[in-house]
Amino acid sequence: MTEVEQFIGGGVTLPSLPALIEEAVLAASGQKDNFVQIARLVQRDIGLSAQVLKIANSPYYGSSHRISNVSMAISRMGTREFKIMAFSAAVINTFKDLESVLDMSAFWRHCLASSLASQLLSSPAELEMEQELGDGAYYMAGLMHHVGILVEAIKDPRRYMQARQFAQDSGWSMADSERRVFGFDHADVGAALLRMWRFPEDVCDAAQYHLRPGDATANRKTAQVVHLAAMLCHELEPDQEHFEGVAPWFSEEAFYELGWTQENLPVLLRKLGECLGKAERFREVLMSV
To answer: How far, in Å, CA of 244 to CA of 114, rounded?
Structure first.
């Protein structure tokens, strides 16, 4: 067992993986078509149902007619968006009560923005399209890339806060500070946890290599996409230093290898701003129940 696996397995018990997330992971892995099962799981969970209904009734969907059940939410949101938002709500519900250690509003705003930006950054062709939520790996990988930070905060909040403070005082990245304090960083922890939870390998690799996409061999594109999404959202978000410190280096290699050019930047930055605004609206709804 590696040092990271020992850290995850020891001490304070981590939250268990909700059944809905397990079903969503199976869907992303292509192992089964589980939309009906996800809908049933949401209907059985009163809190999750309330969150999904608040999303469906939010101004984002532009309807003054309020809906009152999950079936109507599916109809309004569409099957793909319903699965993604239910998955997001379940993930946020899994990691709660960390406000004394983390600015959870800033944390989830960044992760939601990274998930939306990951879909956008998967191809320059996406710039010309109206962005919709999809149920593929990019959204899931973007949402889960920082899960290692949550594990550190649950398992050893004292050392996590020590690493964060050192990053803020020294100008080091959070990952460098974590390696100084823990001997490993949140990318190592997150990837190990996601593999234990049997997430798709490309999602695991994106967590592992989102700080160093040049090291990725298998699933290189997903790692590059999530890296770019996280770093660009980091630069555009004023509150992220509360939980991660200064931005790590930005990989120009990943940017150009994915087909992006300097000419894309004005439109790309505008679209990323839209992702941040949408992520904040989703965060407000997802964290309000």
So the answer is: 14
Q: How many CB atoms lie within 10 A of CB 264?
A: 14
What is the residue range of 181's domain? Answer: 8-286
**Domain count along the chain:** 1
Q: Which residues of 21-57 are buried (b: 16+ CB within 10 A; e: fewer)?
A: bbbbbbbbeeeeebbebbbebbeebeebbebbbbbbb
- 46 in a domain, yes or no? yes
Per the domain annotation, does 3 fall within a domain?
Answer: no
| pLDDT at 33 (0 to 100) | 58
Residue 71 buriedness (CB in 10 A; 0-12 / 13-18 / 19+) = exposed
Residue found under tokens 């990271």: 4
Determine the pLDDT at residue 253: 93
187 in any annotated domain: yes
Task: Report yes or no on whether pTM surpasses 0.70.
Answer: yes
pLDDT along the chain (289 residues), means of 10: 92 85 70 70 83 84 85 84 84 89 91 92 75 68 95 96 91 91 97 93 95 93 94 78 63 92 90 89 80
Residue 214 placed within a domain: yes
Q: Which ranges of the chain would DSSP assign to H, the alpha helix? A: 3-9, 19-28, 35-44, 46-56, 70-77, 79-94, 104-121, 137-144, 147-155, 157-170, 174-181, 186-196, 201-209, 220-236, 241-244, 252-257, 265-286
Q: Which residues pair with 245 in a beta bridge?
A: 173
Q: What pLDDT shows up at residue 216?
A: 94
Q: Which CATH number characterizes residue 78's domain? A: 1.10.3210.10
